[in-house]
Design goal:
By secondary structure, the chain is mostly helical. It is 94% helix and 0% strand. The N and C termini lie far apart (48 Å). Keywords: Membrane, Transmembrane, Transmembrane helix.
Length: 33
């Protein structure tokens, strides 16, 4: 059960991390412009 929870948490963390990277890639150029 704990392994399942850790797997789900890792999966969510990866998705959130990718989304954050994409958002930052779009936002940073506008902030520096």
């Amino acid at each position: 059960m704990i392994k399942k929870l850790m797997g789900k948490f890792a999966f969510l963390a990866i998705i959130v991390g990718i989304m954050a990277m994409i958002i930052l890639n779009y936002v940073i150029p506008y902030m520096h412009a």
